[in-house]
Specification:
alpha/beta; Rossmann fold; five-stranded parallel beta sheet; 53% helix; globular
Length: 209
């Protein structure tokens, strides 16, 4: 079966990304309030390994009962422990999950019923997902704000937050590749005004596609 291509997506797609702690969820919620369908890659990554899914069935068959919780859901902590200890197992898991995630993502983008659709993906550029987008928007805050928000949200120390940020594409590279940038180091009311202005632009671009 061939994977869907950009040409198969009739909808105009905005790719929304940003580093950890930048506030992607808050901004994507603003688009939803404007009546725009949001497709979230992180949510899809959880859906493809939900109980009774083909993804979880394959994982169970490969790794055994140890990766299941008592209720039949995926034991993420156990699976993480296995793949971090064995690179070959990590490669196997990625080769299973990445096509499943991509197929569902593109299907959801294709079937969205709004003037345009937003694809939220923390690794939009890293995973080459911008090829399925008509335009990209980076939600941006200074690195120190990323660190403080991540520490507060995830209850981790500064070194852990720095390690997560270091593993992602740099802020500078994201800003260079973005078509649009929204500064999220201000009040939500100010950010909402910026998003409303961008929304008008995206409506016009989608209408003229």
């Amino acid at each position: 079966m061939t994977s869907p291509s950009r040409k198969s997506i009739d909808n105009w797609v905005l790719g929304l990304t940003g580093g950890i702690g930048c506030g992607k969820s808050a901004v994507s919620a603003m688009f939803e309030e404007l009546g725009i369908t949001v497709v979230d890659a992180d949510i899809i990554a959880r859906q493809v390994v939900a109980p009774d899914s083909a993804g979880l069935t394959a994982i169970h068959e490969h790794f055994g009962d140890a990766v299941l919780n008592a209720d039949g859901s995926l034991n993420r902590a156990q699976l993480r422990k296995i793949i971090f200890a064995d690179n070959a197992q990590k490669t196997w898991l990625n080769s299973l999950l990445h096509p499943l995630i991509r197929e569902k993502t593109l299907n959801d983008l294709s079937t969205a019923n709004s003037p345009y659709v937003v694809l939220v993906a923390p690794l939009l550029f890293e995973n080459g997902l911008e090829q399925f987008c008509d335009r990209t928007l980076v939600i941006d805050v200074p690195v120190e704000i990323q660190i403080s928000r991540t520490i507060a949200r995830d209850n981790i120390d500064r070194q852990q937050a720095l390690s997560i940020i270091a593993a992602q594409m740099s802020r500078e590279d994201k800003l260079t590749r973005a078509d649009d940038v929204a500064d999220n180091n201000q009040s939500l009311a100010q950010v909402a005004i910026v998003i409303q202005q961008l929304h008008k632009l995206y409506l016009a671009l989608a209408e003229n596609k």
